[in-house]
Design brief:
It is built from 14 helices and no strands. It is mostly helical and about 230 residues long.
Length: about 230
């Protein structure tokens, strides 16, 4: 990697990790073998995370006839998918809030796009690779985390490239390649590798703009391709 990437990597190395519960939630959400009891126990160990999920379960949207007092009961109201989605979203939002990103970084767009890509990727996986559907959701949710990292670590360069890409109506990763010699997929994969997330998840982030450059096995290529399609 070049000097600029090494600069970003050195800053990432000093980033705090998500707290232990949040990090475990991310791992559990990506693992199709996760047992409901394990997820419930993990969430229940964090008072703040528990309170936020109970607030969702007790909202007027669900109109449950009784007050939900525990994560065990919240599973009944929300269902496992929504419980995972909420836990992942809350955990990542809390992590992002620890950092000061670029003042005019469009975090709301990143957030909405990440959720949409996660939902589309999981829906596609239900047709082609249902056993790994949760892996695709997490991959979709995290696929652009490298943009946020760049806004924190190289804010001036990132702002220049975002503005230039908007003026030229080209994809950001194309100008990242041109001027930085790497793109946000590579940056994001470096970060989540530090979190010891599954290797196939790391590879999906790394190559979601570089499908043609991937030379690994067919199964992994198909996983990257599905994330690529979910991100269109």
């Amino acid at each position: 990697m070049n000097e600029r990437f090494n600069e970003i990597a050195a800053k990432i190395d000093r980033f705090p990790s998500p707290n232990p519960v949040e990090l475990k939630v991310i791992h559990l959400c990506a693992d199709p073998q996760t047992m409901v009891s394990t997820l419930v126990k993990t969430i229940s160990a964090d008072q703040s995370l528990t309170a936020k999920i109970l607030r969702i379960a007790n909202s007027n949207y669900f109109n449950y006839p009784r007050v939900v007092h525990s994560i065990d009961s919240a599973v009944v109201v929300l269902g496992l998918d929504l419980l995972k989605d909420a836990a992942l979203s809350i955990s990542m939002h809390h992590y992002y809030k620890q950092f000061k990103s670029l003042e005019h970084f469009d975090f709301q767009y990143l957030w909405h796009h990440s959720i949409l890509t996660a939902l589309v990727s999981r829906a596609l996986a239900e047709q082609t690779d249902p056993a790994q559907r949760e892996l695709y959701y997490v991959a979709g949710f995290l696929h652009d985390i490298g943009k946020w990292v760049e806004s924190v670590t190289i804010p001036d360069n990132y702002h220049f490239l975002v503005e230039k890409s908007a003026r030229e109506r080209v994809r950001l990763f194309q100008n990242e390649r041109k001027f930085l010699k790497f793109h946000h997929g590579e940056v994001g994969s470096y970060l989540i590798q530090k979190w010891n997330l599954p290797e196939n998840l790391v590879i999906m982030l790394r190559y979601h703009h570089d499908l043609e450059a991937f030379s690994g096995d067919e199964t992994q290529w198909q996983q990257i391709r599905l994330l690529y399609l979910g991100n269109l």
